[in-house]
TrEMBL record:
Isomerase that catalyzes the conversion of deoxy-ribose 1-phosphate (dRib-1-P) and ribose 1-phosphate (Rib-1-P) to deoxy-ribose 5-phosphate (dRib-5-P) and ribose 5-phosphate (Rib-5-P), respectively. PANTHER family: PHOSPHOPENTOMUTASE (PTHR21110:SF0). Residues 3-397 form the Metalloenzyme domain. It comes from Sinorhizobium psoraleae. This is Phosphopentomutase.
Length: 406
């Protein structure tokens, strides 16, 4: 028997998705552009980091080679490792959206082959009858925002009016999302979560993937800050995922961080939340200590995306990657014979790209464990192969959308 540890570095794309042009993302490359900026000194920030991007541990697992498989080029300014230890490659997404649920569900063996509903980027984002129903059923005096926006910009813009009027700030993006920002004290966290559940029901008719609660604190536009109490209310995955299949087979499925919310709590046997990549890493190590033979630990590292990708913050993203990379030896030391670790991503969010949205990209797939011999599997044509690799490794029946990479 064996155990599997699946870590999603949220938004850590490596460029060159075959269908990038259809998303307006031709040329987007999260790793490639961060490396290029860092090599040119544009990734420096006093007190945080400086110089070329340094990811020695992920490089030794095949990250540089995976990037070259994806784009044909090596990331700039990053040395090649003397030896590669992992089984590595790149993967392209087949799901039609470049959003977090589509990416994660496909990683878990279930691509999303339908189109989500999206709200328009011109004029009011939300239909008048939806806004009326939200105000009536959610017992609120109106909404602010009603547009596409960056979550940090919109709380700076409307936060004070929100606190005066009690109207929640509602916004969306190029993802299939209805996001609601409200002040934790003046509006109330519980009230915000209740409102999100009302809206979840109402946006089912619009085929919206997620309603997201975005609580914040502070008392003026300079210090409004979002808290770790974000909650995502997702629709159910369209078919059973490898999480459901493992749970059905009596295995432990330990969801760390946002994973529980992303899978609408389907197929999860244990849930741990933590705020921040380092706390998520600690929680993952604790889950690994507890995991039994045949179990899966599945973690989402959200900071890359939420704090740095969407915020178009190159030094921040680079520093977060370097900090994550430095934790890998600690993980390696805890592995038992037969264990496998898979590092991957759900989409890109190139911090040098226009706008603040995700970018359609290939993702790295870096696998390692005491009994894995190093090799490349090339470029996988769906993330679903990752879930089937987990299924095969843990000895459950294969699913219909992918095949094991090892
Ligand atoms: O700008 P913020 O609020 O971080 O929003 C981002 O987070 C959402 C969910 O991942 C994305 O759809 C994007 O809009
Ligand atoms: Mn994501
Ligand atoms: Mn995102």
């Amino acid at each position: 028997m064996a155990r599997a540890f699946l870590f999603v570095l949220d938004s850590f794309g490596i460029g060159n998705a075959p269908d990038a042009e259809a998303f307006g993302d031709l040329g987007a490359d999260t790793l490639g552009h961060i490396a290029e900026f860092c090599a040119a000194g544009a990734g420096d920030r006093a007190g945080l980091r400086e110089g070329p991007l340094q990811l020695p541990n992920m490089s030794a697992l095949g990250l540089m080679h995976a990037a070259k498989l994806a784009t044909g080029r090596l990331p700039v300014g990053m040395p090649l490792p003397e030896r590669v230890y992992g089984v590595y490659g790149a993967a392209s997404e087949t799901s039609r959206g470049k959003d977090t649920p589509s990416g994660h569900w496909e990683i878990a063996g279930t691509p999303v082959m339908f189109d989500w509903g999206y709200f328009p980027s011109e004029g009011d984002a939300f239909p008048a009858e939806l806004v009326e129903a939200i105000c009536r059923e959610g017992d609120i005096p109106g909404i602010l925002g009603n547009c596409h926006a960056s979550g940090t910009d919109i709380i700076a813009r409307h936060g004070e009016e929100h606190m005066r009027s009690g109207k929640p700030i509602c916004y969306t993006s190029s993802d299939s999302v209805f996001q609601i920002a409200a002040h934790e004290q003046s509006f109330g966290l519980d009230r915000l979560l209740e409102l999100c559940q009302v809206v979840r029901r109402l946006v089912d008719d619009y085929n919206i993937g997620r309603v997201i609660a975005r609580p914040f604190v502070g008392d003026d536009p300079q210090n409004f800050t979002r808290t770790g109490n974000r909650r995502d209310y997702s629709v159910l995955p369209p078919e059973p995922t490898v999480l459901d299949r493992l749970k059905e087979a009596g295995r432990g499925v330990h969801a760390v961080g946002k994973i529980g919310d992303i899978f609408a709590h389907q197929g999860v046997t244990k849930l741990t939340k933590a705020n921040g990549n380092m706390a998520l890493f600690d929680a993952s190590l604790a889950a690994i200590e507890e995991a039994e033979d045949g179990d899966l630990v599945f973690t989402n590292f959200v900071d890359f995306d939420m704090l740095y990708g969407h915020r178009r913050d190159v030094p921040g993203y680079a520093a977060a990657l370097e900090a994550f990379d430095q934790r890998l030896p600690d993980l390696d030391r805890r592995l038992k014979p037969g264990d496998i670790v898979i590092l991957t991503a759900d989409h890109g969010c190139d911090p040098t790209w226009r706008g603040t949205d995700h970018t359609r990209e290939r993702v790295p797939v870096l696998m390692f464990g005491p009994s894995l011999r190093s090799r490349s599997f090339g470029v996988a044509d769906t993330f679903a192969h990752i879930g089937e690799t987990v299924a095969r490794h843990l000895g459950i029946a294969p699913g219909p959308h992918g095949r094991s990479l090892i």
